[in-house]
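Hi everyone,

Forwarding the result from last night's run.
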Amino acid sequence: MSAQSPISQSLIDTAKSAISALIESAVNSTTVASPNAFGQNAQIYEFQTMLAQRFGASVGVQIEWKDIFEDTEANVVAGFAVITRSLKFRIRVGPAQVLTSAAISLKLEEEDGKRVISQMFFTSTDKAAPIHLSPL
């Protein structure tokens, strides 16, 4: 099976891979790599700093996408994701976890023959994952 070019991918696939790459680069790191998915004029420094601060102490991350939609005429993707971060310390026998619920909205544009993010809105809230204790 041949790989799709960035333009032939759906808007949703492009958005998912860009956000996933950005979040995964923040795991267990003090800095966030600037992925090529953002346009040249995108100002993402504050977002990268926030991700590095919140996700830097994590040892793993899992992203579950929910209700994601695209508008191909406006080149907009919007949806929700639940990001489960596993932390370095443990509770009982499993790693402590934090659930981040995020509402994400992206506007994509073509730049140098590929789709890039020109605008992004990322609103999120954190809560501790429930602890499941088994009876002794």
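Confidence is low (pLDDT under 50) at residues 1-6.

Cheers,
N.
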